[in-house]
UniProtKB/TrEMBL annotation:
Keywords: Iron
Identification of the protein by name: Probable Fe(2+)-trafficking protein
Natural source organism: Arsenophonus nasoniae (son-killer infecting Nasonia vitripennis)
Any one GO cellular component localisation term in the record: cytosol
InterPro entries: Fe_traffick_prot_YggX, Fe_traffick_prot_YggX_sf
């Protein structure tokens, strides 16, 4: 059974995540305010970020950086800057 939320990232009603994918308060915010579609966009950005900066999700410092970037991307409307990556023209 899917649930509909108002996605603050997409600024429209959209299908919400099935369960909280991220721990803590940030995870609750994501679960309540971020749609599957927006989360998918973040996941692909995160993959590019990990590859470009050679980050490890096992490293607490790298996890902190990813969390900061995630919050900026999902809640503050800041796109992730990835060296040598040009977003496709809209």
């Amino acid at each position: 059974m899917s649930r509909t939320i108002f996605c603050t990232f997409l600024q429209r009603e959209a299908e919400g995540l099935d369960f909280q994918l991220y721990p803590g308060e940030i995870g609750k915010r994501i679960f309540n305010q971020i749609s599957k579609e927006a989360w998918g966009q973040w996941m692909s950005k995160q993959t590019m970020l990990i590859n470009e900066k050679k980050l490890s999700t096992m490293n607490p410092k790298d996890r902190k950086l990813l969390e900061q970037e995630m919050v900026k991307f999902l809640f503050e409307g800041q796109d992730i800057h990835i060296e040598g990556y040009t977003p496709p023209e809209k």
